[in-house]
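Inputs:
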Amino acid sequence: MSITEILFWFLTALALGSALMVVFSKNPVHSVLWLIAVFFAISGHYILLNAQFLAVVNLIVYAGAIMVLFLFVIMLMNLNAETEPRKNRWLMYAGWLSGFLLMLVIVAALKEAETRDQLALMKGGDIGLIKHLGRVLFSEYVLPFEISSVLFLSAMVGAVVIGKKD
Amino acid sequence: MPINYYIFLSVALFSIGVTGVLTRRNAIIVFMCIELMLNAVNLLLVAFSKMHHLNALAYDAATKAGAEAQLFVFFIMVVAAAEVSVGLAIIVMMYRNIHSTDINFLNRLKH
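Outputs:
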């Protein structure tokens, strides 16, 4: 078993276990912390796939900015385990059953698909490096890039307008 | 690594996110599960980009095929960041009005 495989299985176990803990945790702050663990595991996968730019952006944007925003909102509202709403037990079982069935159906549909003996290039291949991605982004995809700045501006204005005390 | 491993990992992460949306009542945790689903899709896009790159390398050793998928992931992250800022503002507004983040109270919006 090579070092790449060991890292792959370790990161996979970390991602799946932390994702389950996000759903199971009663305290929302613990959910946020487990979600940060999921993002670190996914960034590790990006590094294994040699997508270094996305690994760093994932850490900075998701684990750094978005999760801090979540933590701020949770602490602003003073949420804890006691304020967790009561729920119907049968609805919860139905949710778990349907989530499991969804996974079963997609896995069964894709198991024997045409991609079954394809490989993903783990090491090598410099398409994930910032030099190449930046060149493609600012030549072919410069219009979507500019439009996303307008999207950010409108999101910022929208958040201020919604959150303003009238 | 076989691409199937990445497909199964992403499907499992996505299903956990769907299950969280279906079972939890706290609006913030529902929102976090949506982020989990977005990240599962991102991981699969990156894996497919490297698969496509490996296939293209067989024909041309200097090919750059596959970079588009990683740019899509970048744009998904941009849209997710914008979505989170607006969504959290809505949740704060909802908490200010009804002093709870239980999504069952949201059905009062209709009247």
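Remarks. Chain A is about 75% helix and 0% strand. Residues 3-125 of chain A form a domain with the Four Helix Bundle (Hemerythrin (Met), subunit A) fold (CATH 1.20.120.1200).
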